[in-house]
Design goal:
It is a single chain. By secondary structure, this protein is mostly helical. Helix content is 76%, strand content 4%. The protein has a two-stranded antiparallel ribbon. Strand 1 (137-142) and strand 2 (145-150) form a beta hairpin. Helix 1 (2-25) packs antiparallel against helix 2 (32-44), helix 1 packs parallel to helix 8 (252-276) and helix 6 (155-193) packs antiparallel against helix 7 (202-243). The two termini are 41 Å apart. Its main location: membrane. InterPro entries: GPCR_Rhodpsn, GPCR_Rhodpsn_7TM, NPY_rcpt. It is a multi-pass membrane protein.
């Protein structure tokens, strides 16, 4: 698992850093939708910069010592903040695409002036929503060292799970997945049925079909990435509470894979961005070309 987390750390840091760098350096890339992508990249950077180093410290050092509980709470809070800001950003990106495709003559629903306020709101909402979750985590002694762990299998925490965690899971996971599915379904349908006036040549039709395939592939990648990264851990959390003290019956390997997939989301987002967004690839090539040694 150490190698896997190391790969995630390098991939997520380099991928998200390049996204931020590209938009910072290229003025032509500074659009509303790209600012949302930067917001998602900045939230994903919390994992390689803070979360992964703390996790590796917990594994290879004798726990966190006396300040273990505080570090434990910070560790899990950063995970929730990062994840929920990323999900909100993904919704905003999809909503921007939806308006651009379905209502091409309509002005953007989020203007450039409003963009900064909306981005700030995503962080405020995520941070405020993360505090109720902290009651389920604490440092505990395991193998003669303090480690972070969930304590939701006790009756008190089981009750809190249904009143706190489940509603937040619905708000930040279930509802976003449904909204993303609906919006991308409408986008793909609109692109398939839309014909530009005068577009009759074979070449133009081939370009339209190619564009539709790219959008469809990106939509499938985003939805699959979302489901694969988020759903397994949510299922484990629900089963852990429902089974009570028999939580240990959950297959350990499945739990490890679910946690790893949850962490992998911070590396999946930049991969999807560079794979399906040609303007990002071109901007990255231009940036690398500018910084090449032979250009000095």
């Amino acid at each position: 698992m150490t190698i896997a987390y190391g790969i995630l750390l390098v991939t997520s840091f380099s991928g998200n850093f390049l996204i931020v760098r590209v938009i910072y350096k290229m003025k032509t890339m500074r659009t509303t939708i790209n600012f949302f992508i930067v917001n998602m990249a900045m939230s994903d950077l919390l994992f390689p910069v803070f979360v992964f180093p703390l996790l590796l410290t917990e594994i290879y050092v004798s726990g966190f010592g006396p300040p273990g509980r505080t570090i434990c709470l910070v560790l899990f809070q950063l995970q929730y903040i990062s994840s929920w800001v990323s999900i909100q950003s993904l919704i905003l990106i999809t909503l921007d695409r939806f308006v651009a495709v379905v209502f091409p003559l309509h002005s953007p629903i989020i203007s450039s002036k409003l963009c900064l306020f909306v981005i700030l709101t995503t962080w405020i909402v995520a941070t405020a929503s993360s505090f109720p979750m902290l009651v389920f985590y604490s440092s505990m002694e395991f193998s003669e060292k303090l480690t972070c762990g969930r304590i939701w299998f006790k009756k008190y925490f089981k009750e809190k799970y249904y009143s706190h965690v489940m509603p937040l899971n619905v708000i930040f996971k279930t509802i976003p997945f449904v909204v993303l599915t609906i919006l991308y379904s409408v986008i793909v349908f609109k692109l398939k049925t839309h014909t530009i006036p005068g577009e009759r040549s074979i070449n133009a039709e081939e370009k339209r079909l190619q564009r539709n395939r790219k959008v469809l592939k990106m939509a499938i990648a985003i939805l699959l990435g979302f489901a694969i990264c988020w759903m397994p851990l949510s299922i484990i959390g629900f089963l852990g509470v429902s089974l009570g003290d028999s939580e240990v019956c959950i297959i350990p390997l499945f739990a490890l894979v679910a946690i790893f997939l949850n962490f992998a989301n911070c590396a999946v987002n930049p991969c999807i961005c560079f794979t399906f967004c040609r303007n990002f690839r071109q901007a990255l090539k231009g940036l690398l070309h500018q910084n090449a040694p032979w250009q000095v």
